[in-house]
Structures are given as structure tokens and as C-alpha cells.
Amino acid sequence: MSTTVSAAEIGSPLSDNRHLLAWIDECARLCKPDRVVWCDGSEEEKERLTALAVAQGVLIPLNQEKLPGCYLHRSDPADVARVEHLTFICTPTREEAGPNNNWMAPDEAYRKLGQLFDGSMKGRTMYVVPYVMGPLGSPLAKVGIELTDSVYVVLNMRIMARMGTRALRMLGDSDGFNRGLHSMLDLNPDRRYICHFPQDNAIWSIGSGYGGNVLLGKKCLALRIGSYLGRQEGWMAEHMLIMGVEEPNGDTTYVAAAFPSACGKTNFAMLIPPKRFQGWKVWTVGDDICWMKPGPDGRFWAINPEAGYFGVAPGTNSLTNPNAMESVRRDSLFTNVAMTPDGDVWWEGKDGVAPEELIDWKGRPWKRGSTEKAAHPNSRFTAPATNNPALSPRVNDRNGVPISAIIFGGRRSTTVPLVLQAFNWTHGVYLGATMGSETTAAAVGKEGVVRRDPMAMLPFAGYDMGRYFDHWLNMEGKVEYLPKVFLVNWFRRGPDGAFLWPGFGENMRVLKWIIDRARGRAGAWETPIGWVPKWADMDMRDLAVPIEDVEDAQRIDVEEWKREIADQEEFFEKYRSTMPKEIVLEREIIRSRLERAGRKG
Ligand code: OXD
Ligand code: MN
């Protein structure tokens, strides 16, 4: 052992797994922490680390009467979001990573980041965070170990994954764990990299303290490395919520849905059906990630690998998402929200008007009427799933839940109807592959531009997009009872710019049609781009919106669609060398049908 490491105080190892011990030793020699602390996931540990985080100013206690067990964290103002331009897939060849990813050769990445990690934890503690993504003991679950110098990461991982000794028990003496190394270094954006090594099942993240870059189980393992492993091992890692929809007779249908960030995925996953749907209940299995595998019974079985919600706070209120509001009332961490004088939290779009005075997300005094936002637009809550009143009782099922329908959606003010059903699996894959969302004012760049985001996986597929589509298409031979596939759009606008569909709880009406179709008991009408409901096929009783608006939301305009198809074709140009031919053929069939429909006038 080098002198530096023998100077480190190595806390008592909680495992004698020699692969794990050797790797921790190697990382400790590189990062040179003062001490190494193993995390067991206990309550006592949580209290100790929370007190430490408070003493260090990493966490600010909130009003413990109003929000028991809740704390606020203010991140570095230059470290508030995922950094796609600094995120790399380090496969041996650039082709494997594909045009959808930044690529760095593995040896170059290890060398470059190795220099940054060298001594990065001097004076700090290296925490060993063992965790499981997925229900304990599930054949679909994966074990990861994250080494980090951030106590904030430890406390978040504790909520987001099944963390601690139980993960080490599941690992046993196996070498099969994801090796995640994270150091905040100095939070300098010029020294920030998020590198994935799919061949080594390893992640190196340096220079950031923000959730998506540093809670390595989430986007890095569950999506980027997960999608890569899924292709090799015959399963799928998707950016999807999972919900169970229970009907009055007790039957529950499970649905997975992909929406790009900022399209209300968490809200949809926690939907409360409107009064009209008495006896119906939506159960949340997951709000962000879905691991799906063909089961022996010919169906797709899915688990949520996470154990908590890392949700966007702005816009969350008791109308848009009462279950989320309930979930963040205790034992939750808030990042970059504003604080009221009495230690409560606030963000734009929370219930009621803004308090007169706040402390903003940067810790500065803020007054109502200020032109600056009090909470950062990407401010977050980290809440345990067990706080959610609608948490599915099946969430810990080792085999997961059987998926009957897959929904793709995006934010589109024109063109895309409220709901349509794909003709078949290949067409469904085409709908997912071409989905897009309009940029909002919150994002940098021009507003209202359609950004294509296939299956909402553009920033998260850990390999070439064309091959990813191929993997999807391959499921046709592996899953006998394939889920039915749907496209939805809650965001279509009328000529006056107003939304045509009320959204939120009313989305239950669309969901019911989807479930009825998946169960083969509702009508539909064939159009050039898919099956759509007629008014009578959907339950629209007591809907406080004129029928004309719903019809407009559902309208299919042939000319708009011809332009849409041309735009999809242009997007695919980049992936031409690996694009499966079915995707190209599917486009041409849709194009021909549209031309014929156009001629009919
Ligand atoms: C997320 C995201 O944080 O998709 O879930 O950005
Ligand atoms: Mn997400």
C-alpha cells in the first residue's frame, strides 16, 4: 500500500468481496481521500450524515414542524443541470457509440479523467455507497457501487435506490457490479466529465454535484449502461414511467410511457382520475425509468429500478400533482428551490401567490414582483417512493408487472393528434423513433422548435440509435403478446394559442381508451397515420371543454403530416448507416397513404 492510502482511515469494510475490495483500494490510491467510509443504509447513518451535511452547510434544515426530515441544498450556480456536451460514451470504437453520443476512446478517457481524479479527494471522505437498482432479489435488478466524496450524493442515493448492506448481501462475492466513481473536484465546469465505459460496466463522473450527473444509478447506470447491457442480454432499459390502472372491477392494466423531460411524466405517473371515473385508480410503479424483459409467458415484464422520485419542482402543485405534493411533505431533499421566512419551500407554480419575501435559490433575498425566478427552473425534489399515496402495491415484485400498452408523447402545438394507436409493432417503433417535443421558453434557444427525441432516449441511449431501433424491432420475435403502442399529445393549441385539451387528471379519458384498446374492447377509426378514437369511443361525459376543441385536438391535417414526415426523414439522415430498413419502409408507406389521402381531397 502506498503511504497516502495507509494514511487514509479505512472504515471497517462491510464486505469481504475481493473484487470490490481490490477496486476500492485502487480508487482510494488514485483519489487519496483522508478516510474511506462504508455506507450501511441505516437510520442511524442517515442521521449522522445529515447532521454532518448541516454542519458543513451542504444542507439547510427546513421547518421541521411543517416538513419533518426535509432539507434544502443549494448547488453551485454553474452546476444546475445535466451536461450533455460533457457526457461521453467510451466504447472501443466511435461507431458503437453512434452519432447520438459524444465519444472518447476508453484509454484516453481513463487517462484524462485519471489525472483529474488523482488526489481529488485529499482532505475529504470517500463514501462507499452500495445500491441495488430494482427490487431486491429480482432477476432484473442490478447492483452498483458508487464511490463519492459528496455527502449530498450519499443522502440522495439513499432515497433513489435500495442502498446499503442489503445491496452487499445481494452482491455476495460476485464481480457483477457497476463500478461508479464520482468526485466533485472543484465543481469547475472546465474540469467536468461524465464518462461511461459500457464494456467495463463502469462510470467515472467528475466536477459536478448535480443529480443527473452524480446519482450514478439513475441516468448513467439505469439508462446509458442499462440500454447497452439490455441489448446484449435481451432486455430493454427505457426512459419511461410505469403505471397500473385499476378499474372498478379490480382489474389492473400496466402501461409504460415515454415523454421527453418537461412533458409532465411525473404528473402522468401520479394521475388522479376525475370524479367521473369513480372506482378507477392509477397506481405509480415508477415515474422515470423502466426495465423491461420478455417473460416466459410471452409478455413483457417491467420493473422500476428506482426507489424515489427526483422530480422537477416548478409547476408542481396540488392541482397538477397532488400525490407529488404529498410525497414531498417529509423526509425529502430539495435542491435549488426558494425558502420562505419560516423555513418552508417555494417554487414558481406552487399553490397560491408567491410569498412577499423569499430567499431565492442562490441564497439571496427575493421580493414578490422580482423579474428573476425565486427557484431555479430545474430545481428538484428527491422524495422516497414510499411517501406516494398512490404507490403501486406491486412495486417490490421481483418479476415486475406485465406491460399491456406503451405510450409515446411529446409537447407539440400542432400536427400530432391527442391520441392515436399504431397499426402494429413496427409502426409503433416508428412512432417512438420519430417522436419530438417543442423547445419551451425555459430552455436555451428558439422557442417552439421541434427537437426529435426518439423514445425520449436521445440523451440516454448508451449506443448507436439505429441499432437501438433494431433492438426494439427485434422484440417482435421475442414477445408473443406485444404491448399495443400509442402516441399522445396533451399540448396541441388552437388558433388563439390556447391549449385545446385540459390535460392533467382529464388525461384519464385518453388513458381509458388506451386501456380499452389494449384489452380489445373499444372502437377506432383508421387514418393514414394510425387508429384514432371517435367521440363515442371515448368517455367524455362531464368534460368541461367544447366538443369542437377536442375534435381540433384530434384533427389530422394531411399537409401538416407531409411536412412532418419530411422533417422526420431529415432527422434520420444522421443515422442512415445503421437505420433498420423497416423504419425507412414504414415512413414510405405512411407517406404514400398521406399522398393518396391528399388526392382524395
Ligand atoms: C430527469 C431528466 O431528470 O429526464 O429525469 O432530465
Ligand atoms: Mn428523466
Structural features, described:
The protein is α/β, with parallel strands linked by helices and 601 residues long. The chain folds into 3 domains: 9-57 and 78-234, 3-Layer(aba) Sandwich (Phosphoenolpyruvate Carboxykinase, domain 1); 238-307 and 393-557, Alpha-Beta Complex (Phosphoenolpyruvate Carboxykinase, domain 3); 310-387, Phosphoenolpyruvate Carboxykinase, domain 2 (Beta Complex). The protein is built from 17 helices and 32 strands. The strands form 7 sheets. Strands 1, 2, 5, 6, 7, 8, 9, 10, 11 and 12 form a 10-stranded mixed β-sheet that branches. Strands 13, 14, 15, 16, 17, 18, 26, 27 and 30 form a 9-stranded mixed β-sheet that branches. It has a 5-stranded mixed β-sheet with strand order 3-4-20-25-19, with helices on one face. The protein is globular, with a radius of gyration of 24 Å. Residues 1-6 have low confidence and may be disordered. Oxalic acid binds at residues 82, 212, 261, 288, 310.
Number of separate strands: 32
Might you state the CATH topology name of the largest domain? Phosphoenolpyruvate Carboxykinase, domain 3
Taking the alpha carbons of the first and last residues, their distance comes to 80 Å
Strand content: 15-25%
Number of structural domains: 3
CATH architecture type of the largest domain? Alpha-Beta Complex
* Average of pLDDT: 95
Task: Tell me the Rg in angstroms.
Answer: 24 Å
Shape: globular
**Quaternary class:** single chain
Low-confidence stretches: 1-6
